[in-house]
């Protein structure tokens, strides 16, 4: 029987060292070509996060640069537009304004670019013509919390409902729940503004259930009182619900499709063979895996979502950065326009970073293989 | 007490698609306590369907169209598997019959540590166990299959193919079942790793005394490890006999053909016409 | 008589984050036409890397490959005419044919590329090639998913033969095929080789077929040749411990039952 | 005001359609400060006098007890009202007036109104301000300068930009004082020591909605009480909703006017301009585009009803009407022809042009569509409806790169406004036009315009007017469509006393300086 | 890759031609294509179909609800809503398709190249793609569109296309990267196929479904973008489309006054075309990932046979049903 005795070490051997010349190999450590075993990895996926950080820096640079060049390609001159709005400013006054805005320089484009960066790094975004020559940073800081609050909240809720719903629909494939998919898809193909206007016409004008817009009631000022919070919730309800309705379909469809793919994986079958209750298989095994691509596309779709708020703010008179941008663009208020665009891009990047970190911790594989 | 563990009678499974596929047809066999039964046959002959079908693991469109599967429990109780309802079957699974699946690569949940996947089994089937008891049990299992208890916190992708397959075996062992079904547990593995795993399986079987249904299409391998071998073809068992008899005295033409399509490592040449 | 020389080839892969992997370490061998060399070794030992270097899908880090004494060119028409003389059959017939294209496309492309036959004879040549691998011409318009695994592998072989190469690299050509089909494909390869005088590099981890199919066997471990020699010598009388290990790991019922005669215990390897 | 709290004590909510106004600035001199955008600056900072842009066009002294101009309107003498206190308790004096105008004179405050002050002197009780040019046509600009307290503003480094957001800076003499500023609304409470007497409305709220549609919705639902906005379908959507909802349309001397680019084809031919004047249906402009919130201008002199008495006798009943026959005749006489119903000019080219109005100016956008259709149907002219964004439109009108635009007029409260806006080259500086976009330039007319503005003699003024009217009738440099009224929508649920059709002591537009006058006249109603 | 083999002997020519469109050969895609085709036809024959010119006034019928003369009523100045919707189709279709063509071409070029190459060039293109993905699109479009005074349709399409290619490129890159290492591509390389042939002949056909999906997705995004931009007034009304109609309707208070004939049809048209495009994409998805099909049709087919596809326990049918024969 000796011939049958494989000469394989049964004890786990340390990893073969570099100049290992012996013929004993550790069968345990060698899988197929597709696998290499790893040991002693770090729990925090530094490499993955580092790679992402580099990418975000690059994107940030690109966004700032685009931001720098855009207004310089636009027609029309901010000061003359301003003068036209405030009729009959004297020519001297106009020159003064130009000086204030730094538009009178005859510096080279490159010098302007450097200046732009140095201002930016000092947090100086210039002053807004459209808002009484107030610093852009101040103008934006008034609006940003509302946008981030409402849109962030609605997006997360929509993501959560869509993902959970999609998981259930996918799990119970072929059941009546499937009808939810075409319904939510239909809702998400409706233009958002149309939905919003209809919602106002029905719920605010006819039924008077909700105020017709704005973030809180007339004569209130932001403070941490129950009344104020109640106002904010009451006012935010319709915009939030319409955002949720309009964006639910995508999340639901994505999750459901991913579930259908995951449900055919072996580990689901294993879990069921293990005698796991359905609920545990659904959430612990299937949904847990299916959600990963969702998280990734969540990160990527944030830019898209933020864009959508412009319309929301118009329809609901909501005090956000979207309308600010639209007005700034129309009025050629470049400093404000650049500021808003920068802030929007920044928030998208921040959201992406968060989603990335979440992804990295949800998917142990990123901790090793990188993006 | 009879020494039969599982009696399969006139068992048929059909995939109710267009046109319907009768994947397993009128299969009869008895599995003895403690034996390794090899199941061989070419791809698509119904091995997997049979192995899954007896514990009703197949999903629609599969339907069991006839026959009975009786599990003779160690306690002396006979369980007719087709009579169990969903909840009973859920509790029955893994406790009495466990499985090692084809392709360990995908059989583990990629986002959960192997420790937690092992603990799952105890949590569901042994709710009385405390957290630390569970952890100790998991460590013990991992030690038994020589993966090492400290690997408890590893994720599947951090293990080699061989180690993953061992984790699967550990999982199958968790509740000390009386029957372990192994569906091509080594096909994706390297020859050396494969041999090591097989060695371990038979070691464990001696230690714990469970029966094994071992599926593969690698007949030479099966001949070495099985007590008895069933040869399947187009959904039917065409021959079932001890490994030695199958090797030395195959009865069915198909068995003969199968045997002749494997070149012998040490036998005379000539199979491949050079 | 042609000669393919693999001379002191080392291949180092640089993997991001994991440093360098020496996939091949000073590997040399010679393949003559009409000859078959079996290349065995466990997973990751570097077998496929040799195939890739031979087909110039990868370039060696050091060392060189020569055909009839001349080093193979890295690009241009020289490379093309080299490739015309050496073709490869992949492991997985399900993956090596483009699912979008018909059988005809697969067989015809090399004919056109290398201008093997005049245009108006293309059809005849396709028919001839399919005939060589025992496939009916009627199959020409089918696409891969309409073929069985064995048929696909035959198409892949026909494609490899189309340019009338002198050497064939077969990288585990049957490991993805069903047991009953394997032998057929191997026999086909053997026939072709006999008829056309091909030099074949047969890559496998299955010692049994390697022994039956090859004249010589090279055993590879961690990128190094640990043993080589005539097929029977290497398999039946392995010298190197690694070869012995491999050998012991391969199931061999013949020997198993021979050694067991009299004993009734039919259990597996590690069972003492 | 919340609809449920009726009667006295309810707040009055004044609304604007300008989108969120999220930056706090109470500076009344800044066009883009929140005080100016909401117009709540007007109830904090008062002016010397209120010039009524409608009705009798009269001047009501306000912070001044009396207002007096010299003959050629280069000197203004005002007597400050006595017994007036700033809202922080300090007494209001002549020094504050001097200080205010001195900021402009010294250039510390940008002279956005082009006041061109040469001297300020205190003369006993009175303050005398001297100007470099006649202010006959710019009385309102002078008198509507917000007066600010010296004791606070002397410490303000840059009055052009300072937001006045510090504690105790937003101090005026006005009827209301700032109470609460938030991004969503601004609240002001009644000034208890207001010189003008007790105020019925204890609190004013200023709100800004996303656009006209949202504002209208707010007015209809009662969320907002008072606004100036062009509301489409106002009859059905607002007035019919509650009998207490009111609309007051106050015609002004200005008019929505079609400016044509006189320098280029096709409008360099007077015949075409005349033909247009005979074709365009001003009634449709008033009825359809403005939904009645305007009054037609048919007079060939281009003067509306309000300025009827300035129309010289020879043009008294010389009116346009829609007369396609006539228009075609004019064109035929000038050598125009038609080919398959398309108008061909004497050079043999098909006539076509575009009319630009910024997108979103819904009344004039509608008028564009109407004009295009009328001219196509009536004269066979292909008119392109162009709705650029504001910036593009602004550049085109200044640089003269448009074909035709609809625009408002400089409102001087008399005939001068129309004629200077359409024929005065003074508006073109650095080749950029602030008015007279068609770039009309006739020395005779220019001289008449200057005479009218600067003379102290009524006779000369009348003679100059004759020159202007004749030129306008003959040359048709622009086509006024309908008077450009001040609008005011308000409800009388809680308060009455707003100006009405019969009593137009001010316009009902809450963004006009006259709002202080209205606020003092409001009384609780039921 | 070991899906059950289906051997379908098909006649030769039809197969090769048909296979390019295989992804559209399912009920959902066909339904979507029919709806889309309807709108395309409307766009082409707008002049013939529309009863009036979109700007023709009917002073006698302002704000008129549907009547025999005006099937979908009239606007505030008596324009025929039906005619406006019909003419508006043109802008939507032209911009949607043009933008998608531009975006798809960029996506193919960038995605396939960055997927096929490796090293810094690939990484660079990938970073570029990601930048375009992350930068918020609508604000950028607003800024870019405002650079043009009266942007013609193709400019709007180009802007929408330039901003909308990144998704497609990303998906194509990932797929190309996986294709690149597939054996059949390696085989083509080993055969000495030139690079351009590898990309165009061996790779692109295998990317067709993804390209189609990304094309359809971009059409949807472009149409929504166009109508939204028109609605908020960034795109001038001279380029007539459904968004423009809604802009007028909203500005003129149609929503408030519930003049449904004015605001409902354009909104529903946008939704209809959106649904059509989603249907096509469902079809393509199911073609690419056959598992998705199992959800609907197969589950229902199972249900008819008394099986529940979600059961974790094999059904037992001890009296064999033979009606399947
Ligand atoms: N879900 C299914 N629907 C229809 N037919 C199926 C299904 N699953 C399996 N089959 C068919 O049933 C037959 C038996 O399949 P099974 O998987 O049991 O074979 P196997 O012997 O395990 O093959 P392998 O060695 O390839 O694993 C095959 O013909 C297969 O095509
Ligand atoms: N492109 C690559 N980049 C980095 N490392 C590689 C690459 N290709 C192969 N390797 C490494 O080179 C070594 C040899 O690989 P190779 O594919 O030649 O093995 P093999 O003997 O063919 O294995 P198998 O039997 O599993 O096919 C392995 O360690 C593998 O991980
Ligand atoms: Mg199987
Ligand atoms: Mg290999």
Explain what you see.
The complex is a heteropentamer of chains A (371), B (274), C (272), D (526) and E (325). By secondary structure, chain A is an all-alpha fold. Chain A has 2 domains: 46-128, no CATH class; 138-364, MetI-like (MetI-like fold, Orthogonal Bundle), CATH 1.10.3720.10. Chain A contains 13 helices and 2 strands. In chain A, β1 (127-128) and β2 (134-135) form a beta hairpin. The longest helix of chain A has 39 residues, at 278-316. Chain B has one domain (4-260): Rossmann fold (3-Layer(aba) Sandwich). Chain B has helices spanning 47-53, 86-92, 104-107, 114-125, 131-144, 161-173, 191-208, 219-225, 243-248, 253-260; strands at residues 4-15, 21-32, 36-40, 62-72, 78-80, 97-100, 179-183, 211-215, 228-233, 236-242. In chain B, the strands form 2 sheets. A 6-stranded mixed β-sheet of chain B has the order 6-7-8-3-9-10, with helices on both faces. In chain B, α4 crosses α5 (131-144) and α6 runs parallel beside α7. The mean pLDDT of chain B is 87. In chain D, 28% of the residues lie in helices and 21% in strands. Chain D has helices spanning 34-38, 41-44, 94-105, 139-143, 150-153, 212-221, 234-237, 270-279, 282-289, 324-333, 362-379, 390-399, 415-423, 443-454, 458-475, 515-521; strands at residues 12-16, 49-51, 59-61, 64-69, 75-80, 117-123, 126-131, 176-181, 185-190, 203-208, 226-227, 245-250, 255-260, 337-339, 342-344, 352-356, 382-386, 404-407, 428-429, 432-433, 478-483, 486-491, 495-496, 523-524. Chain E is an all-alpha fold and 325 residues long. Chain E has a single domain (26-304), classed as Orthogonal Bundle (MetI-like fold), CATH 1.10.3720. Chain E is globular and about 75 Å long. The interface between A and B is large, with 43 and 48 residues. The complex binds adenosine-5'-triphosphate (ATP) (2 copies) and magnesium ion (2 copies). The site of one magnesium ion has 4 residues of chain B, from α1. Chain C: Residues 245-272 are annotated as: Disordered. Chain C: Residues 4-247 form the ABC transporter domain. Chain C: It holds the Pfam family ABC_tran. Chain C: GO terms for molecular function: ATP binding; ATP hydrolysis activity. Chain C: InterPro entries: AAA+_ATPase, ABC_transp_ATP-bind, ABC_transporter-like_ATP-bd, ABC_transporter-like_CS, P-loop_NTPase. Chain E: This is ABC transporter permease.
Order of helices and strands of chain B: EEEHEEHEHHHHEHEHEEHH
CATH superfamily of the largest domain in chain A: MetI-like
Give a count of the beta strands of chain B, DSSP E runs of length 2 or more: 10
Proportion of β residues of chain A?
under 5%
CATH top level assignment of chain B: Alpha Beta
Order of strands, main sheet of chain A, comes to: 1-2
What oligomeric state is this?
heteropentamer
List key phrases describing it.
heteropentamer; B: 274 residues; alpha/beta; Rossmann fold; four-stranded antiparallel beta sheet; 10 helices; 10 strands; 26% strand; globular; D: 526 residues; alpha+beta; seven-stranded mixed beta sheet; five-stranded mixed beta sheet; 16 helices; 24 strands; disordered N terminus; binds adenosine-5'-triphosphate; binds magnesium ion
């Amino acid at each position: 029987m000796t011939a049958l005795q494989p000469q394989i070490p049964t004890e786990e051997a340390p990893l073969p060292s570099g100049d290992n010349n012996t013929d004993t190999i550790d069968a345990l450590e060698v899988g197929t070509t597709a696998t290499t075993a790893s040991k002693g990895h770090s729990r925090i996926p530094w490499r993955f996060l580092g790679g992402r950080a580099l990418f975000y820096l690059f994107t940030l640079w690109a966004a700032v640069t685009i931001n720098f060049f855009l207004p310089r390609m636009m027609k029309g001159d901010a000061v003359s537009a301003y003068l036209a709005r405030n009729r009959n400013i004297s020519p001297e006054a106009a020159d003064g304004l130009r000086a204030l805005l730094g538009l009178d320089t005859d510096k080279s484009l490159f010098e302007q670019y450097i200046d732009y960066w140095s201002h930016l790094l000092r947090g100086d975004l210039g002053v807004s013509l459209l808002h009484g020559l107030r610093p852009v940073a101040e103008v934006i800081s008034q609006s940003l919390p509302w946008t981030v609050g409402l849109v962030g909240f609605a997006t997360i809720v929509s993501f959560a409902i869509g993902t959970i719903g999609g998981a259930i629909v996918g799990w119970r494939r072929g059941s009546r729940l499937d009808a939810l998919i075409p319904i939510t898809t239909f809702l998400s193909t409706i233009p958002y503004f149309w939905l919003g206007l209809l919602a106002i016409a029905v719920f605010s004008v006819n039924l008077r259930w909700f105020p017709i817009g704005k973030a809180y009631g007339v004569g209130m000022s932001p403070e941490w009182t129950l009344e104020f919070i109640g106002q904010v919730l009451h006012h935010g309800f319709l915009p939030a619900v319409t955002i949720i309705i309009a964006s639910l379909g995508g999340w639901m469809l994505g999750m459901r499709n991913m579930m259908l793919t995951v449900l055919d994986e072996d580990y689901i079958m294993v879990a069921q063979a293990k005698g796991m209750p359905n609920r545990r298989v659904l959430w612990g095994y299937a949904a847990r895996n299916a959600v990963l691509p969702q998280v990734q596309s969540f990160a990527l779709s944030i830019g898209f979502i933020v864009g959508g708020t412009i319309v929301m703010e118009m329809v609901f008179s909501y005090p956000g950065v979207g309308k600010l941008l639209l007005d700034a663009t129309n009025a050629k208020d470049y400093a404000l326009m650049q500021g808003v665009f920068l802030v929007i891009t920044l928030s998208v990047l921040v959201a992406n970073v968060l989603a990335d970190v979440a992804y990295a911790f949800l998917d142990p594989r990123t901790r090793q293989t990188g993006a | 007490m009879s020494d039969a563990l599982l009696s399969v009678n006139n068992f048929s499974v059909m995939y109710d698609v267009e046109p319907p596929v009768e994947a397993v047809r009128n299969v009869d066999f008895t599995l003895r306590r403690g034996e390794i039964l090899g199941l061989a046959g070419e791809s698509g002959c119904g091995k997997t369907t049979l192995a899954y079908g007896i514990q009703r693991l197949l999903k629609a469109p599969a339907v069991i169209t006839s026959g009975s599967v009786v599990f003779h429990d160690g306690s002396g109780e006979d369980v007719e598997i087709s009579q169990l309802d969903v909840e009973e079957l859920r509790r029955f699974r893994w406790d009495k019959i466990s499985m090692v699946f084809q392709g360990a690569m995908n059989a583990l949940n990629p986002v959960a540590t192997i420790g937690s996947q092992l603990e799952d089994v105890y949590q569901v089937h042994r709710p009385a166990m405390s957290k630390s008891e569970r952890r100790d049990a998991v460590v013990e299992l991992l030690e038994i299959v020589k993966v090492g208890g400290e690997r408890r916190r590893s994720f599947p992708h951090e293990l080699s193919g061989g180690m993953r397959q061992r984790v699967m075996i550990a999982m199958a062992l968790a509740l000390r079942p009386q029957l372990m079904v192994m569906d091509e547990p080594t096909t994706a593995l390297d020859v050396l790793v494969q041999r090591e795993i097989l060695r371990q399986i038979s070691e464990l079987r001696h230690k714990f005394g469970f029966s094994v249904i071992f599926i593969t299409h690698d007949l030479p391998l099966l001949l070495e490890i099985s007590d008895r071998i069933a040869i399947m073809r187009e959904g039917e068992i065409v021959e079932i006999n001890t490994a030695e008899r199958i090797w030395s005295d195959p009865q069915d033409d198909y068995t003969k053909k199968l045997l002749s399509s494997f070149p012998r490592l040490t036998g005379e040449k000539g199979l491949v016409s050079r | 008589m042609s000669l393919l020389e693999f001379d002191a080839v080392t291949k180092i892969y640089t993997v991001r984050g994991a440093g360098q992997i020496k996939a091949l370490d000073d590997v040399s061998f010679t393949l003559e036409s009409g000859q078959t060399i079996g290349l065995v070794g466990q997973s990751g030992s570097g077998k496929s890397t040799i195939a890739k270097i031979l087909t110039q899908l990868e370039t060696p880090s050091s060392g060189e490959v020569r055909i009839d004494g001349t080093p193979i060119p890295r690009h241009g028409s020289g490379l093309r005419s080299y490739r015309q003389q050496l073709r490869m059959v992949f492991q997985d017939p399900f993956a090596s044919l483009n699912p979008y294209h018909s059988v005809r496309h697969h067989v015809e492309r090399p004919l056109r590329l290398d201008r093997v036959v005049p245009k108006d004879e293309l059809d005849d040549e396709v028919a001839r090639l399919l005939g060589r691998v025992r496939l009916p011409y009627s199959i020409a318009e089918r696409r891969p998913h309409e073929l069985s695994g064995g048929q696909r592998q035959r198409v892949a072989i026909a494609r490899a033969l189309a340019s009338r190469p002198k050497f064939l690299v077969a990288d585990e050509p049957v490991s993805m095929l069903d047991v009953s089909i394997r032998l057929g494909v191997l026999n086909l390869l053997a026939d072709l080789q006999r008829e056309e005088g091909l030099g074949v590099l047969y890559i496998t981890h299955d010692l049994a077929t390697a022994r039956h199919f090859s004249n010589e066997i090279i055993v590879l471990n961690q990128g190094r040749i640990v043993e080589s020699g005539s097929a029977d010598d290497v398999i039946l009388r392995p010298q190197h411990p690694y070869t012995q290990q491999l050998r012991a790991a391969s199931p061999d019922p013949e020997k198993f039952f021979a050694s067991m005669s009299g004993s009734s215990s039919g259990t597996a390897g590690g069972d003492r | 005001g919340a609809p449920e709290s009726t009667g006295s004590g309810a707040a009055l909510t004044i609304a604007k359609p300008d989108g969120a106004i999220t930056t706090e600035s109470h500076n009344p001199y800044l066009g883009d400060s929140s005080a100016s955008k909401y117009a709540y600056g007007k109830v904090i900072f008062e002016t010397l006098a209120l010039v009524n842009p409608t009705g009798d066009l009269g001047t009501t002294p306000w912070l001044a007890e009396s207002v007096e101009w010299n003959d050629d309107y280069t000197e203004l003498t005002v007597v400050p009202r006595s017994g007036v206190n700033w809202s922080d308790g300090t007494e209001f004096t002549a020094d504050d007036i001097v200080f205010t105008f001195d900021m402009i004179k010294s250039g510390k405050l940008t002279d956005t109104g082009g006041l061109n002050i040469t001297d300020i002197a205190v003369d006993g009780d009175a303050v005398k301000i001297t100007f470099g040019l006649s202010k006959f046509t710019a009385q309102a600009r002078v008198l509507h300068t917000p007066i600010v307290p010296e004791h606070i503003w002397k410490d303000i480094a840059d009055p052009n930009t300072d937001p006045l957001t510090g504690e105790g800076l937003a101090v005026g003499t006005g009827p209301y004082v700032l109470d609460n500023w938030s991004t969503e609304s601004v609240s002001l409470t009644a000034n208890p020591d207001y010189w003008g007497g007790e105020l019925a409305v204890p609190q004013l709220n200023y709100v800004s909605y996303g656009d006209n549609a949202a504002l209208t919705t707010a007015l209809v639902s009662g969320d907002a009480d008072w606004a100036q906005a062009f509301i489409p379908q106002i009859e059905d959507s607002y007035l019919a909703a509650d009998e207490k909802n009111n609309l007051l349309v106050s015609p002004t001397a200005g008019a929505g006017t079609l400016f044509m680019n006189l320098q280029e084809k096709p409008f360099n031919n007077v015949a075409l301009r005349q033909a247009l004047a005979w074709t365009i249906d001003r009634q449709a402009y008033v009825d359809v585009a403005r939904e009645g919130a305007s009054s037609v201008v048919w007079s060939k002199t281009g003067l509306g009803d309000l300025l009827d008495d300035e129309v010289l006798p020879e043009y008294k009943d010389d009116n346009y009407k829609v007369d396609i026959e006539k228009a075609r005749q004019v064109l035929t006489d000038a050598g125009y022809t038609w080919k398959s119903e398309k108008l061909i000019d004497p050079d043999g080219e098909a006539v076509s042009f575009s009319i630009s109005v910024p997108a979103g100016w819904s009344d004039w956008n509608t008028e564009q569509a109407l004009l295009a259709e009328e001219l196509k149907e009536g004269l066979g002219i292909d008119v392109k409806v162009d709705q650029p964004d504001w910036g593009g439109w602004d550049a085109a009108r200044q640089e003269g790169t448009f074909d035709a635009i609809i625009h408002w007029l400089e409102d001087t409260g008399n005939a001068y406004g129309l004629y200077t806006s359409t024929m005065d080259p003074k508006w073109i500086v650095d080749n950029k036009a602030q008015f007279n976009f068609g770039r009309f330039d006739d020395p005779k007319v220019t001289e008449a315009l200057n005479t009218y503005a600067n003379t102290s003699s009524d006779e000369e003024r009348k003679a100059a007017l004759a020159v202007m009217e004749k030129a306008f009738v003959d040359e048709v440099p622009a086509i006024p469509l309908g008077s450009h009224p001040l609008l005011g929508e308000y409800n009388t649920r809680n308060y009455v006393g707003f100006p009405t059709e019969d009593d137009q002591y001010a316009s009902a537009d809450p963004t006009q300086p006259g709002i202080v006058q209205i606020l003092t006249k409001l009384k609780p109603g039921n | 890759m070991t899906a059950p083999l289906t051997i379908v002997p098909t006649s030769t020519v039809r197969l090769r031609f048909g296979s390019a469109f295989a992804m559209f050969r399912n009920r959902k895609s066909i339904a979507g294509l029919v709806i889309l085709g309807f709108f395309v036809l409307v766009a082409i024959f707008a002049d013939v179909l529309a009863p009036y010119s979109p700007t023709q006034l009917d002073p006698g019928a302002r704000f008129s609800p549907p009547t025999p003369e005006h099937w979908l009523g009239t606007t505030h100045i008596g324009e025929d809503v039906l005619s406006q919707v019909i003419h508006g189709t043109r802008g939507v279709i032209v911009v949607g398709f043009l933008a998608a063509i531009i975006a798809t071409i960029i996506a193919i070029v960038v995605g396939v190249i960055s997927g096929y190459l490796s090293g810094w060039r690939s990484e660079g293109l990938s970073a570029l793609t990601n930048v375009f993905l992350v930068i918020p699109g609508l604000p950028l479009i607003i800024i870019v569109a405002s650079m043009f005074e009266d942007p013609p349709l193709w400019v709007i399409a180009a802007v929408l296309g330039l901003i909308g290619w990144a998704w497609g490129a990303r998906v194509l890159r990932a797929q190309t990267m996986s294709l690149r290492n597939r054996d059949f591509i390696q085989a083509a390389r080993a055969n000495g196929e030139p690079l351009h042939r590898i990309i165009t002949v061996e790779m692109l056909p295998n990317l067709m479904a993804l390209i189609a999906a990304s094309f359809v997705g971009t059409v949807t995004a472009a149409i929504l973008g166009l109508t939204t931009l028109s609605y908020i007034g960034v795109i001038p009304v001279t380029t007539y489309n459904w968004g423009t109609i809604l802009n007028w309707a909203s500005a003129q208070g149609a929503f408030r006054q519930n003049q449904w004939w004015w605001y409902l049809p354009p909104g529903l048209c946008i939704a209809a075309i959106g649904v059509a495009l989603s249907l096509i994409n469902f079809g393509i998805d199911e073609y690419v990932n056959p598992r998705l099909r199992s959800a609907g049709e197969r589950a229902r087919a199972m249900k008819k046979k008394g099986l529940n596809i979600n059961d974790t326990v094999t059904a037992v049918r001890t009296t064999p049903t033979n009606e399947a024969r």
